[in-house]
Amino acid sequence: MENIIEGFVQFFDGSLDDPKAVNRAIGIAVDQPTEWGGLREAIGRHPYTGDNPEIMLKLYDALEGSEDGLMYGIQGLEILQRETSRIAKLRNPEGLVQYVIDTSEGFPELNSLQDALLVEGSFYTIRSILYNPRPNSRQPDKHLINSVLLVANEIDDRLKDVNAKEQEFEGKSFEEAKEVMGRFNMRIKARQAIVLAYQANGKKPEENIEALQALATYEFLSGQYQANGFDFDLMKAYAQIKYGTNKPSAGEVPDDFKIDPAKLSQMRFSRGYDFDAHFRYHNFGVKQEERERKAEEAKRGSDESRIEDLFENASKNYAEALELIGVEEDMSYEEARSIYRNGLKKRQTTFIRQDKDTPEYDAAMDEMKRFLVAWERIILVLYPEHSKKQNSL
């Protein structure tokens, strides 16, 4: 029984002894993915001997996982002068990605490959703050996730000792410091790519442990957990874990969780969007400005001083207060308050007297004032636990 290559050769009246006829048949067969199964069986008997790099790369896809397929892919890639954008268009590029990693001596090629995979795979189109896709935008190509992780982890590993700490720049010239920052930015971009890859795996953000861990590493290096393409819901899930809002409140909000007033003003007038600042603002509020905090502390100190004065005065004069109210020292608070309320009700008419501007009216008002002050003194001395309660009727 003839195979697919033999069938195409005979269809065009060619000869299996003619390499051009065989190569032509392979070129036709490789453009029909439904025939790839038969092609895998036939290519061993009738190998491709042409020099068309596109056919070679298609053979790499068609012969997925085989040594012959990888050889065709490498040959085609080298003919195309290692054009990284072409790798990103393959159905299963991992073998060639690993080949580029193993043979690449510098970062430009690795960065180019990483960028090509991210763009071709639509990894930036997830619902994010800095990029809002249209409703019909492509979803990330999951078959490229492993390839992105391969090259991004390779870049990160090669730059694992590079950071932006102050000591990294000590004694360096401007050009040397610039080079360090350039390498550090490459590492940050690689860590960003790792987050983009993991968040595309289809898991729920709050359950996507790989993506959350990658985001934590990104923040550790860059100082933030927001970047182009980061999923809004993933950042929200990370922030909830970071600030503990995914658990019951443990009490007063730490002041460090709140945003500075200056940051709030910047948010109102800035064209950008700071996810962390907005999250903290909506969940924890704004820090008090220093002058407001000092004013509040001064007021609190003044209030405490006033209470101390009241205690001191009450201790000296409360004997007179006991007599005026009619309270005895061994009475309970409830008994004393009942006597006070009865006395207060008897004096209510003082406030509606019609003889204003008379000595009698002034005397009645003065007696009412002494009555109210006397009760306050009694509370401060005998019932201090009730001193802050309102003495309502």
Give a brief description.
With 393 residues, the protein is an all-alpha fold. The protein is 60% helix and 0% strand. It has three domains: 1-81; 83-247, no CATH class; 305-386, no CATH class.
How is this structure best described in words?
With 393 residues, the chain is mostly helical. It has 3 domains: 1-81; 83-247, no CATH class; 305-386, no CATH class. 60% of the residues lie in helices and 0% in strands. The chain has 17 helices and no strands. Helix 7 (94-103) packs parallel to helix 9 (145-158) and helix 10 runs antiparallel to helix 11. 27% of the residues are buried.
The H-and-E topology, N to C, reads as: HHHHHHHHHHHHHHHHH
Radius of gyration: 40 Å
| Number of spatially distinct domains | 3
What structural class do helix, strand and pairing data support?
Answer: mainly alpha
Layout of helices and strands:
Blueprint: H1 4-11, H2 19-29, H3 36-42, H4 53-62, H5 67-79, H6 84-87, H7 94-103, H8 107-120, H9 145-158, H10 174-199, H11 209-222, H12 232-243, H13 261-269, H14 275-284, H15 290-325, H16 333-346, H17 359-382
Helix pairs in contact: 1-2, 4-5, 7-9, 8-9, 9-10, 10-11, 11-12, 15-17
